[in-house]
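BUG-480 | component: ligand-complex export | severity: low

The export step for pyridoxal-5'-phosphate jobs runs without errors, but we want the raw record kept on the ticket for reference. Input record follows.
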Amino acid sequence: MTTNPVSTGQSPSTSPAEAAALLARMPDLEQALAFYHRHVAPDTAIDLSVAENVLVYDDSMQKMVFANTSLLPEKYIHYFSPYGTPELRQQVADLLTEAFGRRVPADHVFGTAGVASALECLAFALKNSEPSGPPPLVDGDAVLIPAPYWQGFNWSFEQRPKLTCVPVHLPTEGPHAFQLTLDLIKEQYEEHKRRTGRAPRLLVLTNPHNPLGVNYSKKLLEEIYAWALGDPNLHIISDEIYCHSQLAGSTTPFTSAVALDAYAEHPSRIHVVWGFAKDFGLSGFRTGFIVSQNAVVQDAMLGSTDTGAEKRHPMSWFTPVDSLKHYVVGAVLTASVNGPGSELYTTYAMRTYRDLLSASFDKVKARLEHHRIKYIHQDGDNAAQFFWLDLRDYLDLCVPPNQGDATPFPLTADDLDPREQCLFDYLRTAPTEVSLLPGGVMHSSEPGFFRLCFSARQPDEVCEAIDRVSKALALLKPQA
Ligand SMILES: Cc1ncc(COP(=O)(O)O)c(C=O)c1O
């Protein structure tokens, strides 16, 4: 482990103590790990904890887009439309039309600085009153989310909009382990209503799912949406940030919310988000989009209407798709594979991404199986970018690293089961040095599950990490 001056990106010589102080202020363990591995101790460990994707950049984006992109033209030093220029909104609408299999009009598309921000904008927007729609959301209103789930929903919905995330826990055992059903959602909806006297106001589905990777079938989605929209005050957000992250062998195809019958019936209560962070691997660019035809959401994103209501600035003004993002994302969106008139780079990249992702999945799966490391996956299911590892067998065997061996950078999250924290620390410190994301961070109802992002590094390196994890686990529990 590095104990020399470290590069935090703040200053070239931030001391370990200063870096540790910065890390201690990061309550989201995934983001703390991203910071740690990028700026504090780069190159010392294999980080598979953060949901990132190097496959597309390494395979084609560098050579087909950025190698041909010149330094910044003058027009990009000026103010740009914060929710995207008409060109950008059209290009993203075209891209999503292809991915969703339904036309997405450009005037339903609003850019923000990342999907986390798009979700927060949606939450704020739905707190405004809608003349002929459901009453506005108010502080404390419940957001139902099948769990485990991406912990960022807590930051997007709770920190500033003051809503309350309520997990819908999936079973961890039995033939339906980790499978979402309408009954599970209904039960939590009723339970919350009974306990608080207030019905939940938002249902959030992540499709494909993070961390489970699955696509929800059209049948299940139609069932859930039909029931949910039967409550006239409920909105649904479909987070489709991983929509292109599809395995070739997946037999349950991805179905976007906009392709559902329910969408045709209740378009104003269904909102979709997508961004460039995952499918395209451009997480650092922080560029996300809301797709919504709800008037209140559109007003919030565009700014004041002419109704004489309180004047409001467009929400993206505070969290914009700025000119630099327009430039670099625009380069990705306009590049073509063999010069002008040939296939769009984005079409090519997403087609080949499927192959890259599938090849990586197969290789990593084989290595996990070789080492008999358990994971949750049914044949024919999608995996998006993840394996949900089941390391429960090792929970009670882990002993905390000696004080002297421990990393000088404690990384933890609130409420993490101490045994899960122990296993996480054991694997991420020398000699194993592999970071996985503890499931407790993602509201897993039971400790011992860890998310491995298999697109975060090239497959050979992911396999090397698995070899190291296997060796470390074997020391805890010699293989039979
Ligand atoms: C389901 C989901 N939604 C949103 C995000 C955040 O996206 P962005 O980085 O564009 O804010 C993530 C990132 O991990 C995610 O997994």
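Assignee comment: Attached the raw record above. Residues 75-334 form a domain with the Aspartate Aminotransferase; domain 2 fold (CATH 3.40.640.10).
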